[in-house]
């Protein structure tokens, strides 16, 4: 890797060689990830102080949100009455007090008479102008021109940095020194034609304007350049992956036995929708072309993705290969196993189940059968990617609820075959910007049609005071022969979290519904217990299932028409939509009731209103992305989310589409990035993604 990195740039210059740093200060900078000059230039200001908007103290107005700068003239701890710290600043026009009631000792050590500071917050009038617990920054000590310009960058600084003189002020001086010395050595990483096409700042100019902007406009231009750059390289990764995976020298061309497929379709207890048939045609073409299929199957809850996956696996098995289905939870793997075994009962297809909770002897038996080719369809959890698992002839990999698996986990299963076809499925509809970013290397199929006869689930948001009426409504429906889920967010009581735990609620609900048969289902039960409970619920022996979110995906009981979600404010929108998808799977009208305390915050309130307003999963996903932001959309970054430092997948859709178009076009013309004009692109790509992309692919 060292041999191909750019040696002329700044990424390999250790930070300790910058003037004024040295070894001790370099160790302090390492605590915030600054090891090289490039790391320092990438150390973004946490915010900016625009001095053109700073309000003189003489012009302050009550309840106004302001930023004021001035010299500290007094630091006083007041011990009479309620203890407080007063820090008085003067700006030639008047005096303002910063007031702290908490952590007085800590803040009293920060401020010294004579230093220049900026206080931000809402102004009140009490003898003097005051800001209670202001946001603050220490601007500088000497009022040098560097730190009194129009827009001042303010940097995060920890205690270790401050001890060696790197407060926000000290970091600002260091960045200025680094730009003066190494700015000319910053190497451009984007092709010149793309810079001209969009009028982007050069990389060196963008760093200068990010740290010391001449204007708000130039600051925005700097961020625009860095947004495009990081999205361009991510989409380049997608384009190279896609090109490699679609290479004609790779993959398995399946010779599908059409008569087996037709017989399977005829035996289904329902008729396929037009959308399912369209998607199956797309998959059929992929499997018979030769290059490995890499397809994402999207569809709302209840749209029939599982049967499409089953028919896809039948195609591979009819061609003489094994198919593997990996599910994120044991309960979902079990359900797939039971339902698919039932549907395949009249075919000579051997189905196996491999999960972590199986006894060692059972695992060994299944693993041997897989290795010898005695199992055609293998359904399992993460247990499928263990070292001991060897496939006889793996032709197809299906990954269900794939966003719950890391990219590396997906790769591990794929690598167990000789270029198998891959179908990844998700019932969490993904907004277009996220799909382009996360799955740019995949073809996308969407099942946008629900099975006939399905009625939209009626959704209602109620507060806890209405629970008696809700219980009565549930009682009426169950007396008519229907079934209900009641979902809680946690299993056991916690002193720190004031929630109704499922275990406690189960005891309470047994008293509320003494005339009905209830059961409790959660993730800590043994496999046999979960299996028994779900079988009894599906058979109608259990009328009310009290559960945690283990029933979020995959559980299919057509007679269950009621979903009550307690403490619904604790769930994300997509998760609420998934839970709602457990009902409405039959022909009867179904209901989802969301119960929250009355004093929930505004974001939670918007989630409840969105759930009431629509049952469209794609609209739900767009709203969820807007409310939570891209970083939290899936709850964790392990699922392939790019580590975006500049771009926002919610607001930067146009930049994403432009970067994708440009990256794919570049790979089309120079698939190995070998042209001289793309040398810096190749170096930057390998530097960023050597760990995510086998270098052999473009070597």
Give a quick summary of the entry.
With 699 residues, the chain is α/β, with parallel strands linked by helices. The N and C termini lie close together (12 Å).
Notes on the structure:
Helix content is 38%, strand content 18%. The strands form 4 sheets. The protein has a 7-stranded parallel sheet, with helices on both faces. The N and C termini lie close together (12 Å). A hairpin with a 5-residue loop joins β2 (65-78) and β3 (84-90). The chain is α/β, with parallel strands linked by helices and 699 residues long. The model is unreliable at 1-8, 634-639 and 695-699 (pLDDT under 50).
CATH architecture of the domain at 458-614: 3-Layer(aba) Sandwich
User: How much helicity do the residues have?
Assistant: 25-40%
**What share of residues are in beta strands?**
15-25%
Mean pLDDT: 84
Largest sheet, in brief, is: 7 strands, parallel
CATH fold topology of the domain at 458-614: Rossmann fold
Gyration radius from CA atoms, angstroms:
30 Å
Total DSSP E strands: 21
Low-confidence blocks of residues: 1-8, 634-639, 695-699
What is the number of helical segments per DSSP (H or I, 4+ residues)? 23
Strand order, sheet with most strands: 11-12-10-13-14-9-15
CATH class division of the domain at 458-614: Alpha Beta
Pairing-aware structural class of the strands and helices?
alpha/beta
Characterize the overall form.
globular
Q: Between the first and last Cα atoms, what is the distance in angstroms?
A: 12 Å
CATH superfamily of the domain at 458-614: P-loop containing nucleotide triphosphate hydrolases
